[in-house]
Specification:
The protein has helices spanning 6-26, 33-40, 44-53, 64-78, 98-112. It is an all-alpha fold. The protein has one domain. Helix 1 (6-26) runs parallel beside helix 3 (44-53) and helix 1 packs parallel to helix 5. The longest helix has 21 residues, at 6-26. The radius of gyration is 14 Å and the shape is globular. 23% of the residues are buried.
Length: 114
């Protein structure tokens, strides 16, 4: 059974929510959780950038190709390109390495939790 981009979407959604949670713990910016979440939307790259301003080195131990990869699919995710099942089509250019994505997400979360 082909799952298309669904697993990648789930990893990225997990990353988004984890980043928001960590950032909210560091600085609520005087916002409610709802307003805070809406401020950052689905912008993984903006969340990573903001965490860097709080001293979180999310890139530690990641190769340049891996950080570029997560930034690229972060842009795709923000544009909701992974939200729909059309990724099941094997010719869809969004098909990405699920294992690689999971490893990068895991490393980022380890880094921000230090």
């Amino acid at each position: 059974m082909e799952l298309g981009n669904v697993p990648v979407f789930l990893y990225l959604h997990y990353l988004e929510l984890t980043l928001k949670s960590k950032l909210f713990d560091l600085d609520t910016e005087g916002l409610t959780t709802d307003r805070f979440g809406k401020k950052y939307g689905h912008n993984i790259n903006k969340l990573l950038e903001k965490l860097e301003t709080h001293g979180k080195d999310w890139k530690n131990g990641l190769a340049t190709e891996q950080t570029e990869f997560i930034e690229k699919i972060g842009d795709d995710y923000k544009g909701k390109l992974y939200n729909y099942a059309d990724g099941i089509n094997p010719s869809n250019p969004l098909n990405v390495d699920i294992i690689g994505t999971s490893e990068i997400v895991k490393k980022i979360i380890e880094n921000i939790n230090k």
